[in-house]
Amino acid sequence: MSEQNDLMLRVLRGEKVSRTPVWMMRQAGRYLPEYRATREQAGSFMDLCRNADLACEVTLQPLRRYALDAAILFSDILTIPDAMGLGLEFIPGRGPVFAKTVRSEADVDGLPFPQMDDELAYVMNAVRTIRSELNGKVPLIGFSGSPWTLATYMVEGQSSREFAQAKTLAYQQPEVMHALLAKLTQSVTDYLNAQIAAGAQIVMIFDTWGGALPHWAYPLFSLDYMKNIVAGLNKDSEGNRVPAMLFTKGGGQWLHLMKDSGAQGLGLDWTTSLASARKMVGEDIVLQGNLDPGMLRANPATIHSEVQRVLSDYGMGHRHIFNLGHGITPDIPPDHVSAFIDAVHEISPAYHE
Ligand code: 1CP
Fold first, then answer.
1. Domain spans in the chain, listed from the N-terminal domain onward
2. Nearest CA to ligand 1 atom 11
3. In this structure, which residue's CA is closest to atom 28 in ligand 1?
4. H or E element in which residue 130 lies
5. pLDDT digits over 228-284, tens only?
6. CATH second-level architecture of 73-267?
7. 328/101 Cα distance (integer angstroms)
8. Smallest CA separation from ligand 1 atom 22, residue
9. Ligand 1 within 6 A of 72 CB?
10. Which of 38, 66, 100, 246 has the most CB within a 10 Å radius?
11. Is the CB–ligand 1 distance for residue 168 below 6 Å?
């Protein structure tokens, strides 16, 4: 691992590059047999996150197989609510479940601010271990959930489709929801700054459920808090700005608002055309995306032509980072991922004259 690849950082700094960088959301995950083996060795998912050496191992696994241009910290967005004392468990077949929920003013008032050098120290240990092991091979992405997305899990106590409890709280008692979002904003800012201090070179905010909000409520309950976080990010140890990226799933129609968030990059799901997104955000913002992860079930020839479609949709230029429109799913054959990554390497140089 001696080659130094800073392609993604250069794109986020606005420099010219010779091809499109590529990585995948959930690139370390269950579609890889070696991930499943390490996960088994760890015991539970949270035990894997808490063990810096094993978290580092699974972070590096996809990089050994594929020519990826970034590593992403192996952890989860739900580490913050867990550290606030809600008691997180991942139940196979059901997903995350919390022992406690947050549904009243008293519940919000009772939430402690998690300490980055105590309850969340295991995350920073993983960041330090991974950064040192990468040794410059590719940049390391740190991440957090958005306050709104974290709040949906804390209010519901689990994954949700309708967000019945979270929306009732937001619409019926907006001041309680805002108090929760303000607390989470402080915690997420501290969390990302601690990851930056530990060596994260890019930070990404996953707003997976922002797209569930009505148009008037998206800025109020999600975007404004993410802006606040971006404004509160520290520089790295050398005094450089650490690029920030926002990903609101289902947020393509709000790009004209997101472009002024202060983030250098915006992630897109597959419902938005990169060409129209580029017109909306202008040439100063990097766009990341947006192959439908479902396309990876198709055969390698189809994957190749769909990569071509995404690249030509963005068009000529240096401010695109290739990714999926959401995380890769456990059923994808690993050789289809090779076809995807290889196609980006093969086709994208033609878009960088
Ligand atoms: O048993 C397992 O192996 C659990 C599967 C798994 C994995 C691999 C979960 C449970 N989390 C993760 C890792 C993870 N989660 C990463 C690691 C880095 C990488 O991308 O490779 C990241 C960035 C996340 C982020 C995350 N977790 C998000 C935001 C991004 C997204 O995909 O929308 C969300 C919503 C979660 C919650 C979560 N974690 C895991 C589950 C099953 C869920 C619930 C998802 C839901 O509510 O539908």
1. 5-27+66-70+284-353, 73-267
2. 76
3. 77
4. helix 121-134
5. 999 999 999 999 999 999 999 999 999 999 999 999 999 999 999 999 999 999 999
6. Alpha-Beta Barrel (3.20)
7. 29
8. 76
9. yes
10. 246
11. no
